[in-house]
Structure formats: C-alpha cells, structure tokens
Amino acid sequence: MLTTNNQIQVQSLSPSLEFAASKIPTKIDVIGSPVTALPFEVQINMILEWAMSKISKVVCVANTHMLVEAYWHPDFSSVLKNADIVTPDGMPLVWMLRLMGAGTQNRVAGMDILLSLCRLAPLRDIHLFFLGSEIRILEKMRYKLERVFPNVKIAGMEPLPFRPLTFTENEAIIKKINDSGAGIVLVALGCPKQEYWMNQNKDKIQAVMIGLGGAFPVFAESHKRAPYWIRHLGGEWFYRLIQEPLRLFRRYSTTIPVFIWLALKQLLNLALVKGEQRENVR
Predict the structure, then answer these.
(1) What is the pLDDT at residue 24?
(2) What is the band of 278 on the pLDDT scale with cuts at 50, 70, 90?
(3) 42: closest CA among 91, 85, 96?
(4) Which residues are paired to 187 by β-bridges?
(5) Cβ–Cβ contacts within 10 Å for residue 226, how many?
(6) What are the pLDDT digits (tens) for 80-94?
(7) pLDDT the model gives residue 255
(8) Residue 38, pLDDT above cutoff 80
(9) CA distance to 49, 159, 190, per residue, from 173 (Å)
(10) What pLDDT digit, counting tens, does each position of 240-266 carry?
(11) Omega before 192 within 30 of 0, i.e. cis
C-alpha cells in the first residue's frame, strides 16, 4: 500500500495475479443484483486491459444504496445486470460475498479505484477523462492530480448540468470523449444517474466508463474521507452522514434497514438450502 505525503493510500497490484485479466468476471447475487467477486487488484487489472484496447465497458461501484435502488426499480436492476463489473464498494457487500463463498474478497471502493488508476494508467499510456461534478471541483482535482500524480495523462475534464442532456448535447459529449483518446472515463453524476448514462452510452463511447459518485469532491478535499480503520469496520456511511446529514439522512434511513432485512433473508434461505442438500446426501 502506497501512502503519499498527503496521506492518500493506494492499493497496488501484486506481481502475480491469482486470475488472468482476460477471465470473465465472477459475479455473485446479492439481494438480486450481481456483484463481481474478484480481488481488488484483479478488477483494476481488467479495467486497465480493457482501456488499453479502447473497449467500451461499464463499471458500477456498488454500495447498499445502489443495490436497494436496484431491488426497488427493475429498470435500474437491468442496468446493473448489463454492467461488465459491479464492484463491492461498501463493506456490507464484501461481508455478503465472503459469507456466500468468496472468502478472501476485499473491498473495491470508488476512491481506491480512482487513486490506483491515476497511478497505474500512465504506466500503460492510458489517458483519463473526468466527466461530471462542478467546474470548481474539477479545477481542484486538476491541481491536486498534477501535484500528487504528476505523470497522470488527463484527456479532458467536463462538468455536466444537473438537468438531463439533450440528444445534441449527449452526442457532443460522446464525440469529445472519443476524440480525446481516453481509455477510461471517470463519471461523477451520482447514483443512479451515472449508471443510467453509462448504460445508455455503452458501445458509443470507446472507453471503460466507471461511475465514481462522490469520489471527485473527496479527492478534491471538499469532503474528508473516513480513516482507514473506520472504512475497514464498515463505518464509512456514518462518517459521511456526520459531514452531510441533510443530504444523506433520508437515503440511509430508507436503504440501510431494507438492505439488512433482504441480506438476512437471503442468507437464511441459503442456509436452509444447504441444510436440505446435506439431508439429501445422507
């Protein structure tokens, strides 16, 4: 793990990968949505391999809120099922994957993805395009990127309006991204808007699109990230709630209890099925 003088931690790739980068991502159903059950380093390597070949792919960075949204909305559930990778951003998803067979699964969080790509993409001559957020945030990001990751290749930075894009505006964005030569597009429009947008533009944008939600303002230091020990214990949601109570209270109060209930029900059903299978073997 690399720590800069600004206390930014980056998970690095190990020399020998357990899985080949060409392997089809293994997915496990978590309350009705597929979550990719592969180590952090393997998922990063897959993204880099796709980006080098300019393959149009969609990566969703999932937490409990996203999976509950998918449970409630079948159209959004289809978006996650169509995604190429759905990373376990939140620790509750990591715990679920471990309980369902992926015993060594680690967290694949949006902020760690951003930091790793900024460090590793230049080594493969991959350019990054930053899409969404606000001009103020993007300017802060550019300044910090140039300071912390001086070798990062920025293909472009483009804020987007909060309203839906017109057809003409969307086509112009697609052309701008494709003309930039970017291999990776980091999208920060918020969930579920960014996931819908990536799904809509898959095969139009010749790059790997990754929905990073609130990672931009955290990197730009508009919001503070929880310390590692809090993240590891699954308490990042509470840390964020303290920083943004008005925006996050309703979201958390309506999604966390639902996720817990659905997860417990799924685990109970799994235990019952395994019990029946053992009885049948006897």
Answers:
(1) 61
(2) confident
(3) 85
(4) 131, 211
(5) 19
(6) 999 999 999 999 999
(7) 86
(8) yes
(9) 24, 10, 18
(10) 667 767 676 677 778 889 999 999 999
(11) yes
If you average pLDDT over every residue of the chain, what do you get?
Answer: 88
Give the neighbor-by-neighbor strand order of the sheet with 154-158.
Answer: 85-88, 57-62, 208-211, 184-188, 128-132, 154-158
The position carrying tokens 């180590």 is: 39
Q: Give CA separation, 268 vs 99, 102, 104, 256, 279, in Å.
A: 11, 17, 21, 18, 17
Residues sharing a CB contact under 8 Å with residue 146, sequence separation 6 or more, in sequence order: 152
Tell which residue, 110, 145, 139, 143, has the closest CA to residue 127: 145
Place of tokens 């503070």: 224
What type of residue is 16?
S
Distance CA 254, CA 258 (A): 7
Both tokens of 83, joined, read 């995604």
- Write the single-letter amino acid at 154: I
